[in-house]
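Do me a favour: review this protein, sequence plus structure tokens, and tell me how the chain folds. Record follows.
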Amino acid sequence: MASGFHARRAGRRSRPGAARWCLAPALVPFACLMVGASAAVAVELRLSAPLDWQVVQRTSPGRGSLRVVGELSEACPAGAVLEARLVHGDAEPAWQRIGGTVTGRALSGTVTGPAGGWWRLDVRVVHEGTVCAVGSVGHVGIGEVFVVVGQSNSANHGEERQVTTTGRVASFDGTAWRIANDPQPGASGSQGSFMPSLGDELVRRLDVPVGFIARGIGATSVREWLPKGATFPAPPTIESRVTRLPDGTWSSDGAAYAGLVAGLEAAGPRGLRAVLWHQGESDANQKDPTRTLPGRLYREYLERIIRASRQDAGWEVPWFVAQASYHVPGDEKSDDIRAAQAAVVNDGSALAGPDTDALKGSLRERDGQGVHFSGPGLREHGMRWAERILPWLEAQWNAPRAVDGGREWSRYEPLPECHAIGWVNANVRAKDSAGWDGVLDEARWGTPSPEQAVGRDWDWGITDAQWHEAVRTKGEGSREEVRFDLWLPDDVPVVKGIVVMSGHGSGESLFRRRDLRALACELQLALVAFIGNPVQRGFWPHGLLAERLQAFAATSGHPELEHAPLFLYGHSNGTGFSAVFAAREPDRVWGWVSMRPGITFQVYQPRAARVPGLVIFGEDDHFLARPSREENLAVVPTIRRRHDAVWNMAVEPKTGHGPGEKTWPLVLSFLRHSFAARVPPEADPRAGPVRLVELVVDEGHLGANWDAASGGYQALEVAPYADFTGDRAGASWLINAPYAADWQAFQRDGEVGP
């Protein structure tokens, strides 16, 4: 195992490569004793992933995921779970439950953590509150990963070996990771490379570790990098990787290409940032002119390599292609090869790498007489690569992307936990004399008071000034990355409204649903989603959303986003956004949805009574029974009676906490009909805030509420307000006849009809 793997055992340090946790017999429950033959037998945990000094590709500016794989020396009891933490220095962060499985002796999972490192990764197996085994990997990083291929100047043929000055650059040899001091493992040659220099510059600019998978081979032609069996009319100067065929043509043995693919596979799907290609010298201006490759064929072959690599990798791996054709003074470039390399970039197959033909004189070996780079040349070579990569990297986070007939933007921001509504509850809100603690506290539900469902809500009357004072005195808390996403349909001159989704739970998937995007195209709507602990369950102050919409208005060229009316969606505790924001800004919200509310105290928002609301419960959702099913189902009828609310609720039979494919048509129907009822057709948010239509209760429809005692699918009465025979005051209020028909079908059949 790698040298950074830490192991622990009670009372003494175990041998390297293993982790042992020996628990005193008196403290071990019987279930954990069964892991070994007796209490005296410790459980050994070996981690095979991640590796020591490994860098994994970050998925956003501030986040990434580590795949965890390990094996226990003895089978683990059923029900064991995985916990992990990323540690830096002397800090002792809390253990976190991670997604994954422990099956018999095998364990696997995923740890999501902040970009950066080196971190120490601690992993432990826990069964019924007892720690059964612990292991750790001493150095892991979440940053940027690159595969480097080409010929000698992409490998270890420089005049001086280089070392990383930051100590945060690593390289992979196919088996193990190590600090990336030259020579780089996996590439030919035994001298210097540009990778330590490039890595250090990226570390300095990005403050994340950088990993390289080097596969360069000295003196290779682009022909030798073709997949196995690819043919060409004339051989390169060196024939060891090509074969002459009976018809006089030549073919590649595929060995170099196989090494490239192995590097891509080692990183995993989307596990690297880009391939860096530096090659061309062995195809340009050869002493034997028959071995010189025409530029048109160079372009054809390189594009074939790029296409094949993407197909084998299973995703569109970005490639950077350098301008490289230099040999020696007097033979400093090949216009034909350079034009071919530029064409690969210009036609969109690759991105432009540095022009290294411009690096001459003292930047080349033997006082400028050789083809390889000197020590200063290697360092300059790395800087030139960084100049190309860094602006492109920045654009990956902020540049618009063409998706589903529209454009999508993302904004990443490190926001402190003081924006979270739970932080406000703990640090700003004045607690009542009863000491009620029902906000985002799943650990202590307690016994509800008789009036809890109807006498409490989240309207705490806190001013922005009070919030700012609390932040000043108590500190803003730790920061965590938050992502805001915007999607706009193409060819929409004016956005008529915005659907805003908390990404908590199902919100992220809803944002990307094609049926929602098709409806957004039809109605000329924008879609906005946000995810991250400081905001996804609701946030403070509420002006935070307006600020982000203003920023999107500027970057998208749609200034009307600043004033466009809103439709809100929140799942589970995301109701802390959808219902609470609707209460805070009722004049701007045309409708809102609470999908499987985590706590119904979030839903009880009298100030949102005049904003159409849809609350969808799952019949088998464990949250529906906490603290009681009757109390949760009473919220909408009660607010209907007390505040004449234009709200409706639906119970989806035989479903749990998550919505399914049959759920979304009801949500989209509610969105469509509430938009038509509330947003005037002539409204133009470019002129300022839109005045929404005030709904008249007795002009709508009513639906009988689902009966908890009967359960399952129910044929419920639906009728115009004046014709409804049931309890008008507490029945679900339905916008119009078409929506009432969809709602009725959903309760009767579990789905909306065609």
